[in-house]
Task: structure prediction
Amino acid sequence: MSIKAERSEELTKLLGTRNVYGEVLAELGEHYENIVALNADLSGSTKMELFHKKFPHRFFNMGIAEQNMIGTAVGLATTGKIPFVSTFAIFAVGKPWEQIRQSVANPNINVKIVSTHGGITVGEDGASHQTIEDIGLMRILPNMVVIVPADGIETRKALQAIVKHRGPVYMRLSRMRFPVLYDESYDFTISKGTIMREGKEVTIVATGLMVSQSLAAAEQLEKAGITAQVINISTIKPIDQELIIRAARTTGAVVTAEEHSIIGGLGSAVAEVLSEHCPTPMRRIGIQDKPGTSGSPAELLDRYQLNPQHIISAVEEVLQQK
Amino acid sequence: MKSTHNVKELKEKACQVRSDILDMLNRAGSGHTGGSLSAADILTALYFSQMNHDPNKPNWEERDRFVLSKGHGAPALYAVLARCGYFDPEELKSLRKTGSMLQGHPDMNTTPGVEISTGSLGQGLSIANGMALGLKLDKKSSRVYVLMGDGEIQEGQIWEAAMSAAHYKIDNLCALVDLNGLQIDGPVKTIMNIQPIADKWQSFGWHVFEVDGHDLEAILDALHKAEKIKGKPSIVICTTVKGKGVSFFENKVEYHGVSPTDEELERALQEL
Result:
């Protein structure tokens, strides 16, 4: 069984997805001599510094100039390199969005954009640095694969998979450490979701940090006599339609949960699938069309209603509609 | 493989390229006449003399690369690629038509010989930098050429790229500017002045050449000299005439994005 933790007492081991990224990129650099890394003055925070130390000639600090960073990565890719581009999520996909559209996504260029500091749990830096739009911004682009790992193990496995995938990938990582959910036997496949917990009355479809939040919610719901199925959708595009449709048919009620605007992200992607193939009562947990604000990650999860009790309320509401 | 044309032959090639540009734009019924004609001699010098490339092997690893950062000059690039032998010149008639291999702006996935898709201004220099860095990592002697418009260098990304090319001492790169002095809304100097352009590039750490962009010998002389500049990138600022070769298109803002009518085409071909 590849799912290590299901219950809250097991969700105690924490691992930073960006820390894992730094280690794995440096490891992959040994096996793939054509990996190059580009950063925009955040190689410490994004943990790319490990790669830099190991392969100084294959690392390019582009300074605080993200549009040029994307273009340079594209040029490198045309010579057979596999460029990994990293900075904070908003600067990775917000500032150079049009460069990504024109020069990466449309022509299907093999550039891997791995951002850190996604979502509101960036915390004290506030709204300017809290990216709650990146999944939508990347999901809308042709050829782009969009991945949000749920823990450090999945981060490792997903990195190993995307390096083999030919084409553009966006992966969102976080500043804060996530509870470890998977064990090392987990086999990540692009576009495959995971049933993290079985349940009959409702399905909670989550991504990133919200997978562990949803598992905590499901545990509490069980005590109240409601069994909730929890699904991790780490590949938001191309999404695991089959799994989502099958789940909706089985439980007949769906709640989505993401650390992202409720517009354009996982909730929208799941609604697109279900409205066409299996209309199902739904609720979307996420940021309710407003900007972020400064605060500790824990306070912000509460303020933006991303905690287990908010998921539970959404479940109760959607069950009324069944 | 470098071509070995003399100047007289190159001038004939440039004339053929201009004639192709006018004909395909007339058939298309839309497109960028002025900026294609102003770039015709620069592209002729690159593809028929300067660049090491093989139309029979567009993906040959040792080739020199060219990036048309001013993507709206696509007709000039398509004419040159067709006349080099990358594809049948008959295809030029399909420019901008549904399903054509010749898109309104360059598309690397449909047109043999197009190195990278462009059209959104300001991105080509960054991409050329990346190509040049990749070739250096692989210890290849290939060179990278990139052509920008003068209005295009109003884009901030150009200057991010200018800074990083000098920072990384990218000396296997030679940029060119098609300094035709006009952009869609009017003269560049009245819309958003870019002068003193040579000083700007020099202060960013580039070796600057300034030439008449319609003098094939002068362009080639600068490109040859640029190959010898080590430790910094080079740029050739080519002073050109928008609409060059057709008297009634020359220096006319209104022919930036308008194609010739049947009557204009007839008169224009006579002039060439």
Notes: Chain B touches chain A at residues 65, 107-109, 115-120, 122-135, 137-138, 156-157, 160-161, 163-164, 167-168 (CB under 8 Å).
